[in-house]
Every structure is written in C-alpha cells, then in structure tokens.
C-alpha cells in the first residue's frame, strides 16, 4: 500500500499523544505462541459480523 509507512507513523503519533485509543479496536486476544495458528487463520478468513437491528 503506497504511503503505509507514513500512515503508520501518523497513527503511532496519535496513539502516543492520547488522541487514539487502539484498545477500542481489539476484537480478539490470543495468549501464547500455541495460539498463533488460530490467530493467523482468523486474520486470513477475515470474518465479518453484520447487525441489521441496531437501536
């Protein structure tokens, strides 16, 4: 992706200065090296959840 290094630098500065909380984007947590295959599988399949009924 063009400009990805620049974009990552900007994101890192936003996080470092407290403007962006990356914990709000965490959807799954995999603890330990034994869980790496499952984590990679999830990233590869990129599951999507759709919600039709949002209040």
Description:
- The protein has 55 residues and is mainly α.
- It has one domain.
- The chain contains two helices and no strands.
- It has helices at 4-16, 36-45.
- The radius of gyration is 15 Å and the shape is extended.
- The mean pLDDT is 84.
Write the layout of secondary structure elements.
Blueprint: H1 4-16, H2 36-45
Compact description:
This protein is an all-alpha fold and 55 residues long. The chain has helices at residues 4-16, 36-45.
Please indicate the count of domains.
1
Strand content: under 5%
Tally the helices: 2
C-alpha termini separation: 36 Å
Identify the overall geometry. Answer: extended
Number of strands: 0
Mean pLDDT: 84
**Rg, Å, rounded:** 15 Å
The largest sheet is: none
Low-confidence stretches: none
